[in-house]
Amino acid sequence: MFRFKKVIFLIFLIVSIILISIVFLRDDKVKNVVKRDLIMSDSNNLNNEMLSSISKKGIIVLGEYHGVKEHHELLKNLAIELNKKNYNTLLIETPQAWSWIYEDYTTGNISEVDEIISKRFRFYTANLKDIRKYNINLPEKERLRVKTIDINHNPYYYITSLEFMVQFIENKEPIKILIKELKENVEDEENYKKVVLDFNNNLKKYKSKFSSKWYNRLNKMTDIEIKSIKCRKYLKDGKRKSRYIERENIIKSLVEDNLKITDKLIINVGANHAQKKPFRGTKHEWIGEYLSYKSSYAKDNTYCLLVIPKKGKIQWGSFDNHKSIDITKSSDNAELFKIIAETSKDKIGFLLFNDQIFENEKMPLNFYYNKIKIKPKKQYDGVIVIPKANVIKR
Fold it and tell me: How far apart are alpha carbons 96 and 213 in whole angstroms?
């Protein structure tokens, strides 16, 4: 009996040693792959290797941690450098009603932004100015255009956009009447909706009174506001998943509109939106998955990249609530983002998940909000680890 127990113990010990060895060997292999494939760069001087690697695909989707100053600086620098490789459009997750303002400001067609709007420009102001400055010496067709691709989370995005538009549009009277009626009914959802629908139904009557540019902008703005009203109603009624799905469908349609006119896009959205499969957040098809597998314009031509900060502060649950983070202290030694952060040190670390290990083996991933163990390639095509994060003040 004693011998039998001894044999069982020895078998258990041998199996345990083998399993532990396998884990250590795998961890070493991941570290070796990271060391071999990681591209390191300065945020203000992105190196050619990183740019050449990213630009192998026409559609670049960046998944951000909202409100991180260093992310927006990276986004600006990356967009400017990729513009030199014929990426002429940057789409950002901001209410669509302001899309024409972002586009005209960055391309130099308007010089100033209304005070009300400029307060809400806060996340992008400095970087938009830099893009505008970069664009000045370029021919019109080569300029980097910034557009927006989100729903209008409240009616004031639509109203303020129209108020600013009055300064530039040819036939001002119909817009002034619309603004007056919207403001009078903004607190009454049904009446507000009726005003928007009536304007939409009558818009064709004004087609000859507007240039094609302004007519098309008004038409798209109003269409998205009608869809945004539906999303806001879902949220008010507690139908959160329906709202998420409808919102994502609107984002997809706005991206598709741009893909019809260009095969090179940079798209900046929240980290969940950039997923190829919904491992985090609501279980539905996000824009990253749609572009990677369904869009006739983008499938097989898209990189979905997570951008995650190494340490600093990020938004935590709301705009005004912040949390200190440090991937090197909150992760186990085998965690992928920690390995990248420690390898890249104070540089940007860019890694495409090209090695089979990222497609075949599950690995621990620390997203700060939660930790999961998955095959990284199923969720993203790669990751950019930025050395620090400071939250932009509202």
Answer: 16
Distances (CA, A) of 77 to 127, 139, 262, 356: 9, 19, 21, 30
Q: Which two tokens stand for residue 74?
A: 């990276």
The DSSP letter of residue 45 is B
- CB neighbours of residue 303 within 10 Å: 22
- Give the model confidence (pLDDT) of 161-180 as tens digits: 999 999 999 999 999 999 99
For residue 310, the cross-strand partners are none
Pairing of β 302-309 and β 59-64:
parallel
Are residues 382 and 353 in contact, defined by beta-carbon separation less than 8 angstroms? yes
Quote the CA–CA distance of 158 and 163 in Å, as a whole number.
9
pLDDT tens digits for range 60-79: 999 999 989 999 999 999 99
Kindly report, residue by residue over 18-52, the tens digit of the pLDDT: 444 444 445 689 999 999 999 999 988 899 999 99
Taking a C-beta distance cutoff of 8 angstroms, is the pair 57, 51 a contact?
no
- Mean pLDDT score across all residues of the chain: 91
Contact 273, 286 (CB under 8 A): yes
Q: Which residues contact 68 (CB under 8 A, 6 or more apart)?
A: 309, 312, 314, 386, 389, 390, 391, 392
